[in-house]
Amino acid sequence: MADDDCINLELTCAILERGGFAVVPANNGREVLDIIDSVQPDLLLLDIQMPLVNGFGVVARLREEISYADLPIIATSASAMSGDKALALSRGFDAYVEKPYDIAALLELLNHYLHAE
After folding, report:
1. What distance in Å separates the CA atoms of residue 86 and residue 89, rounded to the nearest whole number?
2. What is the DSSP letter of 23?
3. Which has the closest alpha carbon to 3: 65, 85, 16?
């Protein structure tokens, strides 16, 4: 889970942990890229707008690596701009979720990607 807003990161991590997920928080895209090999995540929930390396930059780098080509990566954004979802999907994200989250829908989406065959 990566988000540059500390409050959002803490709340989302708490929600996910209560939902039964193991969560490794990151404050920006650079942190994600620095820790991903040691963490070996099953899924990434990644804010699009972050400092240092934004979500699009993280996805671009990960999709170039064979080991992460099929990793489910879900974009999150507080920006409800028209076309954001289509842009995220065209840039390599698997799904797009707007903030504030519909918690039940978010947990359902994560379960879908983690249990897809």
Report:
1. 5
2. -
3. 16
Dihedral sign, Cα of residue 103, residue 5, residue 32, residue 85 = positive
Q: What burial class does residue 45 get, using C-beta atoms within 10 Å of its C-beta: 0-12 exposed, 13-18 middle, 19+ buried?
A: buried
- Which pLDDT belongs to residue 19? 93
Q: Could you report the per-residue pLDDT of 83-97, keeping only the tens digit for each?
A: 788 999 999 999 999
83: left (phi over 0), alpha (psi -120 to 50) or beta: left
40-76 pLDDT per residue, tens: 999 999 999 999 999 999 999 999 999 999 999 999 9
**Entry pTM:** 0.93
User: Token digits for 86?
Assistant: 């289509």
Can you point out the beta strands (E) in 8-116? 44-47, 73-77, 95-98
Task: Indicate the residue type of 54.
Answer: N
Q: Are 103 and 21 in contact (CB under 8 A)?
A: no
